[in-house]
Amino acid sequence: MVILDTNIIIDHLRFSTNGETALINIAKKIAKENVAISVITVQELYEGKSTKDKQKEDYLLSTITPLKILPYDYEIAQLAGEIARDFEQSIEFADAAIAATAIINGAFLYTLNKKHFQGIVGLEFWQNSGE
Question: In what order do the strands lie in the sheet with 68-70?
Fold first, then answer.
């Protein structure tokens, strides 16, 4: 399974009319039932002001609805807290939660910002061919 970082979805929402996005690319390579997002990503997406626009919200929903949405539970929360506590650099709550979601689910993380996650023990990245 591959868990998408929020920036993969945002990139798609902003640039899908300009050609192939990272989301389109991964959708061509991995069955949709093996592609997921954390419920934390849903929150991050709704933090964007564009979701106040019904048409943009509908596009967001049509983008994420086919994806598996993984819950944020006690085990993930505990690991996310430990990541935030022990990580050498400062890490955002959402990034720690998404990384923990990937680790607990035995999944790869696909992100456009590997530097935010580099060095998290147990976290593996999905490598898109051509990157």
Answer: 68-70, 35-38, 2-4, 108-110, 124-125
pLDDT tens for each residue of 78-98? 999 999 999 988 999 999 999
Coil, strand, or helix at residue 52? helix
Q: Give 71's contacts (C-beta < 8 A, 6+ positions apart).
A: 39
Of 128, 127, 124, the closest CA to residue 108 belongs to: 124
Q: Which CATH class is domain 2-125?
A: alpha beta
Beta-strand relationship, 124-125 and 108-110: parallel
Domain boundaries, the chain: 2-125
Instruction: Say if residue 28's pLDDT is above 70.
Output: yes
Structure tokens at 90: 């400062």
Report the DSSP beta bridge partners of residue 70.
38
Whose tokens are 């993984």? That residue is 70
